[in-house]
Amino acid sequence: MPIKTVKAENFTWYFINEFNGQDLIFLKNNFKFHPLDLRDCSGEIQRSKLDVYKNYFFLVFQLPLWDKGRKKIPITQAYFFIGKDYLVTITREKIKFLNTIFYKVINNHHLREEAFAKDSGYLLYLILDDWLRNVWNIHNDLEQEIAKIENDIEEGKSKKTVYDLASLRRLVLKFKTVIDSQKLVTNRLSRIDVSFLKKEIHVYFDDLDDFVEKNWFLLESYKDRILSMQEINESLISFRTNQIMKVLTSFSVAILPLTLLSGIYGMNVDLPFVNHPNFIWLLFGLFSAIIIGIFIYLKNKDWI
């Protein structure tokens, strides 16, 4: 597939979808990129990172794609080479958001003028800004999940809540894994000092850093809330278990007199009053009164 390009006076945008061997040869022949950067483009998926060189910098940017229906988080990433007169974007598969931006720039004259009005760093900002705001729109879904679990805890659905909390915590930690590296990258971008980009680009990269940091703090708050709900749920489960154990223990203590009676009269020895048929009813009455007395005592002590 031929490499798509958008040319302007200041720089050219090279848009590479479904990166393959021919694209790799094109990059080697037309640019002086570090071999390790090119290897990263065709290697394993990795966390977001930024490598700065004299004439360009190389950005790996990882983003989660929230699948609300299946509650899964597939991870995708794009690679960016940014120099004075070029921006190269590389993806291994078609990414909807990135494709949309590219074709908007091609087909919308006003947007094209805005995108190429400054330098390649500003176009990178527009791409990342649109991409981040489309991806990090998951907070309403997470809030709904947390609210649902809080209601389940109040209704006493402890067993179901254990699994729901574990699943939600796994999702939040997956998002946190992605945004932790994003936070480091956007923070470095906001302070980047290279000769091939204008100084004013710091303002735009700082805007990205603020946006990512805001989402990072939101995910931190979700993590803390989930941990608090887990502690509350575990406390309620422990309380209910203790209540059950108290009742069972009370019954065990209450029937001890009967156990004693059966043990005594189960022995193969002569015992007093064994030949009096009404004596057994007297014993039953006596031990029934003892059992009732034990329950009254336990109740007065607030042990049951």
TrEMBL record:
<dbReference type="InterPro" id="IPR002523">
    <property type="entry name" value="MgTranspt_CorA/ZnTranspt_ZntB"/>
</dbReference>
<feature type="transmembrane region" description="Helical">
    <location>
        <begin position="279"/>
        <end position="298"/>
    </location>
</feature>
<feature type="transmembrane region" description="Helical">
    <location>
        <begin position="247"/>
        <end position="267"/>
    </location>
</feature>
<dbReference type="GO" id="GO:0015095">
    <property type="term" value="F:magnesium ion transmembrane transporter activity"/>
</dbReference>
<dbReference type="GO" id="GO:0000287">
    <property type="term" value="F:magnesium ion binding"/>
</dbReference>
<dbReference type="GO" id="GO:0005886">
    <property type="term" value="C:plasma membrane"/>
</dbReference>
<dbReference type="InterPro" id="IPR045863">
    <property type="entry name" value="CorA_TM1_TM2"/>
</dbReference>
<dbReference type="GO" id="GO:0050897">
    <property type="term" value="F:cobalt ion binding"/>
</dbReference>
<dbReference type="InterPro" id="IPR045861">
    <property type="entry name" value="CorA_cytoplasmic_dom"/>
</dbReference>
<dbReference type="Pfam" id="PF01544">
    <property type="entry name" value="CorA"/>
</dbReference>
<protein>
    <recommendedName>
        <fullName>Magnesium transporter CorA</fullName>
    </recommendedName>
</protein>
<keyword id="KW-0812">Transmembrane</keyword>
<keyword id="KW-1003">Cell membrane</keyword>
<dbReference type="GO" id="GO:0015087">
    <property type="term" value="F:cobalt ion transmembrane transporter activity"/>
</dbReference>
<keyword id="KW-1133">Transmembrane helix</keyword>
<keyword id="KW-0813">Transport</keyword>
<keyword id="KW-0472">Membrane</keyword>
<comment type="similarity">
    <text>Belongs to the CorA metal ion transporter (MIT) (TC 1.A.35) family.</text>
</comment>
